[in-house]
Amino acid sequence: MGKIIMMLLLLSSLYVCSQNNLPKNVTAVLEKAGKNRGELEKVIQQYNKNTADSLKLKASYFLISNMDIHSSVDYYWTDGTGKRIPYNEMDYPDFVTAVKAFEAIKSKYENIKPVPYVYKDIDTIKADFLIRNIENAFAVWKQPQSKNISFTDFCNYILPYRVGSEPLQDWRAVYHEKFGWIEDSLKTQNTEQALHYFAKDMRTWFVNTWDQEQRKEPLPHLGPIQLLNRKKGNCDDIGNLMTYTLRSQGYCASLESVPYWATSTGTHFFNSTFSSEGKLIPFDVSTANIKIDNFSREPSKVIRITYAKQPDVLANIIDREQIPPGFMRNKNYMDVTANYWQTGSLETPLFTIPSQPSIAYVCVFNGMKWKPTWWGKINKGKVKFDNLCKGAVFLPAYFVDGKIQAAAYPIASGYQHQLTLKPDLANTRNVTIEEQDKYLKFRLDKKYTLYYWNNNWISMGEKTAVEGSSFLVFEKVPKNALLLLIPEYSQGKERPFIITDNQERIWF
User: What mean pLDDT do residues 387-397 have?
Assistant: First the structure.
C-alpha cells in the first residue's frame, strides 16, 4: 500500500512538473477552460509521452494557446412556449431528408422559432476531436504538395480545425475522402492546376447563392459538414468550403476578406494558397479565371483571417466595445492589402470633441453609409492611417456612444496626389452634371437631388430630368466638395464624386 501511495505521489509530482514546463500562453488558456481543462490536458499528455511526437506537441500548444478567442455561432428551435424542439439537421443523412423532417415538425408544433446561441471552443472541445484533427493534419503534411511547407506555415494554414465562427464539426476525414481524387489527378501538376480541378468539381455540385437567396436562419456561417450536405452557400461559404478542401489534401489555405469595397457596394471573400516555391496564389473558384491577378475595383482593406492571435490588432490596445462592430473587434486577422493593391498613408488633423478618444477610424462610402475599415492612433490632435488603398475617398471618424461621427474632412487618395475635401462655402459655382455611359443615365420626369458633404450630406436641391436633355445644372455648389447625386428611384448604389476646376468628374 505504501509503495502505491509513493508511486501516485511521484506521478503527481511529475505531472505538476510537466505543467510548470508548459508555455505561458498555453497555461493561460488552460486556466480559462474551467471544467473542460481536463480535455485539453489529455491532448498535451498524449503527445508528451514520446519525443518522436515533439512536433505534434508543439502543434497542440499552437491550437490550445490560440483557442480562447474562438467560438461557434449556432441555433436551435423552440415551440411557442419556449421549449426546445428535438431537431438537428446533422442527425439526418442528407439535407433533403433533414428538410422533410423539419416540415413534419412544423406541422406538429406551433409558433416555432430559431434561438441563436454561442459556445466557446475552450468550454466544449473534446480531446478526441483535437487529437484526430492533429493526426489527420500531420498525415497530409507528408504529401508531395506539402513537402516544402514549413512547420510555421503548416500550423497557420493546414492544422487549424476551424475557419471562422462556424459550428464545430469533425470534417477532416470526410473531406479527405471526398476530395482524395486530387492526388491521382495531379501527380505531375502544380498547385494552380489543382485549383482549376477543385473549381471544376465544385461547380458540378455546389450552388453559389450570392445573388439568389439570403439565409433566413441566424447562422452566420455553415459548418463544414453542412456545406457538403446543403450543397449551396454564398461567397464566404465558398471561401470556407475551399479552405477545408485544400487543407484536407495537404495544401495551405486561408480565407481572405474585403470588409468593404472602397469604390463600390458590398463585401467579398476569397482564398489564398502558396505555390511549391512559396509564392502567394490568391484565387476565387466562383470566377472564370480562378486565380486573382487583379481586383476590378479598390478594396478598402484586404484581411487574412487566421486561427492564431495577431500581436498588432486593435483589440489588443482598447476594449472591443470601443471598436465599431466588425472584423476590427477580433484578434485573429492580418492586413495583407499591400499584396493586392497600391497602398499609401493618410495623415490629417482632427476635429476637437469633448473627451477625445485615443483611436480614430477611417471609413469608406459603401451601401450609402460611411463604413469603418481601419484605425489609427491619435497623437496631438492628428492621426495617421497606414496601408490604405489608393484610388478611393476616405472619411476619418470617431466611434462615440456606438455611432460613427466625422472626425475630419474627407480625403481623396489618388494614385499621385491626395486632396482634402473641405467645402469652400465662400466660393460657389454652377455645376453641370452630364450623362455618362455605364455610370449615369437620366430618366424622363424623374427627380435628382445633389448633396455635398460637410460633416453630413447637405442638399443642394433637386432637379427634374426633361425630354431631350442629357444634363442637369445645380447652382451655388461649394467648390472643393465631395458630391453625391441621388435619384428618386435610388437602389442604394450611388457613388460620391468630385468635379475639378476644369469640370472633370471623378467618381469614387
Answer: 98
Identity at 344, one-letter amino acid code: G
Q: Which helix (H) or strand (E) holds 115?
A: strand 113-120
pLDDT tier at 271, thresholds 50, 70, 90: very high
> Cβ neighbours of residue 231 under 8 Å, at least 6 residues apart?
95, 205, 206, 207
156-308 and 338-420 agree in CATH topology: no
Helix axes 54-65, 37-48, angle to 10 degrees: 160
Q: Is the dihedral of CA 335, 338, 340, 344 positive or negative?
A: positive
Q: Are 149 and 55 in contact (CB under 8 A)?
A: no
- Assess if CATH 3.40.50.920 describes domain 156-308: no
pLDDT category at 436 given cuts 50, 70, 90 is: confident
Backbone φ and ψ of 140, nearest 5°: -80, -15
Mean pLDDT of the chain: 92
**Which residues on neighbouring strands pair with residue 450, listed in sequence order?**
485
**Gyration radius (Cα) of the chain, Å:** 27
Domain 338-420 has CATH 2.60.40: yes
Domain residue limits, the chain: 71-118, 156-308, 338-420, 424-507
Cβ-contact 172, 179 below 8 angstroms:
no
